[in-house]
Amino acid sequence: MREFLRTGRFGPVTLGDSADSVRAVLGEPTDWYDPPEEWNPGFWKYGDVEFYFTLDTRRLWMIYCDTFKRLHLGPRISLDRWFFDSHPSFEAVQRELLAEKLKAERRDHPPNSPERYLLHLESGVELYMCNSADCWPGDIGLYGFVHKSDELQP
């Protein structure tokens, strides 16, 4: 996870990779969604993490996780989850990022929703944070992340 937050590379997987190359590295997904509509992208899921592909070229355009208890990629893939265990507080996340010299800018997400916000890193990775049990998914602290390509986005 350190490399992912620093560079946007999820181990050997990076945005723009073909679906075939993701499968070659990660194996068969633990779950998937193949959309019936042309406008809705499909994704492969490995444990808690979803990998979204463009429909036209089947290129990876987003790596996404919107909830986890103890981050994992399924039974076949090992992962150094770093601080992605349970739901660390903003202070704990900030402390870990500072220790690795990773700068994060706090942004509202969505706008006008003060209980939810993002920590945007220089790599383009964004961490989803919540400071109230009233917001989805109901866990205070870090609850997910996203890294996406605006150029590839369907």
Structure description:
This protein is of the alpha+beta class and 154 residues long. It has one domain. It is built from three helices and eight strands. An eight-stranded antiparallel sheet has the order 1-2-3-4-8-7-6-5, with helices on one face. Strand 5 and strand 6 form a beta hairpin. It is globular. The mean pLDDT is 88.
Query: Pairing-aware structural class of the strands and helices?
Result: alpha+beta
Total beta strands: 8
Summarize the main sheet. 8 strands, antiparallel
Oligomer: single chain
Helix content: 10-25%
Structural domain tally: 1
pLDDT averaged over residues:
88
- The 3D shape can be described as globular
Short description:
The chain is 16% helix and 28% strand. The protein has 154 residues and is an alpha+beta fold.
SSE layout and pairing:
Elements: H1 2-7, H2 19-26, E1 31-33, E2 42-46, E3 49-53, E4 60-65, H3 90-99, E5 104-108, E6 116-121, E7 126-130, E8 141-148
Antiparallel strand pairs: 1-2, 2-3, 3-4, 4-8, 5-6, 6-7, 7-8
List key phrases describing it.
single chain; 3 helices; alpha+beta; globular; eight-stranded antiparallel β-sheet; 154 residues
